[in-house]
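dumping this here so i dont lose it
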């Protein structure tokens, strides 16, 4: 059985290089020492995670190859490691996109002085936004039901789109 030590090392070094480049990018646009960590960490992750997908996709494709020769596979990782990496990347990106970054943006832009008032303002404005998105999605679902009838395939097509 072949081991993935070389591939593990390459993937680790690649992710470290990406993290270093993201830090250089942040350093160019933000003063790292004076920027609070509650701003810096989500922004770092918001850039690092999508860029790491560029590395994860070819590794996933090579890992799913059924080649017997290790040299023809290229960089590969065990199936469980790839699955965990995809899940972490997907769910962190999802949480950052829909919850953390919008809350953080409104928190920073609010005109209130106390953290409690800023958080309440941020939660209210993002709650309003999420409600608008939910109403639009419900309207789209009603439209699909009227157009295509009440079938599971039509709902699935809307959700995928």
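and the seq i came up w/
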């Amino acid at each position: 059985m072949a081991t993935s030590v070389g591939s593990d090392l390459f993937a680790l070094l690649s992710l470290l290089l990406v993290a270093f480049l993201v830090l250089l990018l942040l350093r160019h646009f933000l003063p790292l020492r004076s920027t609070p960590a509650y701003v810096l960490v989500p922004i770092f992750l918001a850039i690092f995670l999508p860029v790491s997908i560029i590395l994860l996709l070819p590794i996933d494709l090579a890992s799913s190859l059924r080649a017997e020769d290790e040299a023809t596979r290229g960089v590969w990782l065990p199936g469980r490691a790839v699955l965990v990496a995809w899940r972490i990347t997907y769910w962190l990106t999802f949480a950052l996109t829909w919850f953390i970054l919008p809350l953080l943006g409104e928190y920073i832009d609010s005109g209130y002085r106390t953290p409690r008032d800023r958080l309440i303002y941020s939660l209210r404005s993002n709650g309003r936004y999420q409600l608008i998105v939910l109403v639009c999605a419900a309207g789209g679902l009603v439209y699909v039901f009227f157009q295509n009838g009440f079938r599971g395939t039509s709902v699935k097509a809307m959700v995928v789109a």
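The two ends are 42 Å apart (CA to CA).
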